Amino acid sequence: MKQKLIILVILAAATLGGLLWLQDYLSYRSITIVLNSPATGVVIKAGASHEGETQKEITITSNQTIRLKEGSYIYTPQGKDADTSVNSFTVTKNDTLTIAPAYSLEYRKKLVPKIKPQLEDALRAQYPTAMASYQINNVTLMANADWAGVLLTSRTATDSNPGVIYRAIIKKKDSSWEVVSKPQVVLTVYNTPSVDRSLLQATNKLGLQ
Q: In a 3-state reduction of DSSP, which class is residue 203?
């Protein structure tokens, strides 16, 4: 009788262990990681929902599919020219995670001297009369360097008399640049409704720093 009881306890423990393993296994999902330039890799870490669990940091350097347990995660893009800001995502089903960071601020700054003449050409083509009196004083390249915010100042401006300062946004379309906002003293969602608010805010900071 005692031997039967021991066998039953062992079987119950094995069954419970198997059920727990199956439950844990079924909580994992297949996540396909796709790296888009300028990302050359990504580091994935478990988020707050996995507190207390033992989960290793995952480093990925090529497109591949991995298994992740349901819950929250954070990831940091890797790449010489990539913005390495931390991002978050949640796993609830089999899914694809595309890593497509913007260019880093340092890289975008390096591109300005090369791109600035193209921005001037776009402004002159759109506003030939005004650009005879104005010039680009400052540039901020945004996103993947396919958006540009510019600060326009008078060609006769001095420190004591800067004149009226304007700001404009120019977008890269195919291989050329196109002015998408009429130059304004301050860009708003009302005078420039077709442009994302974050780009307006970044451009409005030009000349204030």
A: helix
Instruction: Give tens-digit pLDDT for 67-99.
Output: 998 889 999 999 999 999 999 999 999 999 999
CA distance 89 to 98: 11
Rounded to whole angstroms, how far apart are CA atoms 200 and 196?
Answer: 7
Q: Where are the beta strands (DSSP E) in 15-161?
A: 28-35, 41-46, 58-60, 64-69, 71-78, 87-91, 95-99, 134-142, 147-154
Tokens at 116, concatenated: 């600035």
Convert the pLDDT of each residue in 133-158 to its tens digit. Answer: 999 999 999 988 999 999 999 998 88
CATH numbers and ranges of domains, the chain: 28-99 (2.60.40.10), 105-204 (no CATH)
